[in-house]
Each structure stands twice: as C-alpha cells, then as structure tokens.
Amino acid sequence: MRPSTSFSITNKPDTSSTRQKPDTGSGFSPDKPRHHTRFTHSRVACQACRGQINVGCHVVVREGLSVGDHTLFGEGVSIHDDNHVAGRGPEPIASRGFEARPITIGANVWVGAKAVILPGVRIGDNAVVGAGAVVTRDVPACTVVAGVPARIIREI
C-alpha cells in the first residue's frame, strides 16, 4: 500500500473552528500569517498531491486546507476558509473579525471552473463539484454537486 502524498496548509493544527475578533484580544492580528495564493499565469502541477491547480485559482487559508491525491482544480476556483462575522448590532462588520474553519478536500476530486468552496466544508473522495457551484455544506464521497448553493445532482 502506497502512503498518501496529499498536502495541507495549516496555521493552527487540530482547530475545528475559531472566531477571531480584533477588539477582544482573542489572538486576531492583521499580521497573523494568512496563506493567500493566487495562480494567474499557468497551470500548476501539484507534485505533493499528484493533482493539478489550474490558472486563476484563488486560495485564502487562515486555519487549514487539506487536499487529497489526484485532485483537479479548474480555472478560477476560489477557496476560502474564513469569512467576516456577520450579525445584528451597531458594530461595523469590518471590526467584528473573522470566523475560520478548516477545509478538507478528499482524493480524486474534480472541482469545476469558477467553483467556490467556503469555510468548514469537507468534500469526500471521488466527488465532482460542478462549474460555478458555491459549496457551503459537506459533499459526500462519490457524488456530483452543482448550483448555488451546491446540491447533490447524482451519485457516481
């Protein structure tokens, strides 16, 4: 059995959810490491996972991103593991900080062009994410999802 060569990006290991707020001293800092990668000029063969990241992909990681072997990302895919804290109240959204949750993408997944993957999502092995889909919930293994928000279209 060959060992997995999947890759991951993390700032804090074993963190399932973090709410960071600048005015409470919770550890938020504009200087906190934030992996921000944009692939704009050419396809990138991901040697670590034997997959492919296509042109125009945008990856923002505060907490963690894990990607399995042989996963393909179409052009313009956007992956964000953080989002602004929203809610009622007089406090401006910009001063509420961020909520970040790691993203896990399984092995042999195909993410179609311009799909968006949002915080805390887990995508199972052998899944397909349709072009332009917005993934807000977990995607079971061996399924095809599409739409806004992404919904299961069929099993494969």
Quick summary:
This protein has 156 residues and is mainly β. 0% of the residues lie in helices and 38% in strands. Strands 4-5-8-13-16-18-19 form a seven-stranded mixed β-sheet, with no helix packed on it.
Keywords, please?
156 residues; globular; 19 strands; mainly beta
What is the fold named in CATH at topology level?
UDP N-Acetylglucosamine Acyltransferase, domain 1
What kind of sheet is the major sheet? 7 strands, mixed
Q: What's the β-strand tally?
A: 19
CATH level-four homologous superfamily name = Hexapeptide repeat proteins
User: Taking all residues together, what is the mean pLDDT?
Assistant: 77
Calculate the terminal CA-CA distance, rounded to whole Å. Answer: 25 Å
* H/I helix tally: 0
At CATH level 2, the architecture is: 3 Solenoid
Please provide the ordered H/E string of secondary-structure elements: EEEEEEEEEEEEEEEEEEE
- In terms of DSSP E residues, the strand content is 35-45%
Tell me the overall shape.
globular
**Total domains:** 1
Q: By helix and strand content, what is the structural category?
A: mainly beta
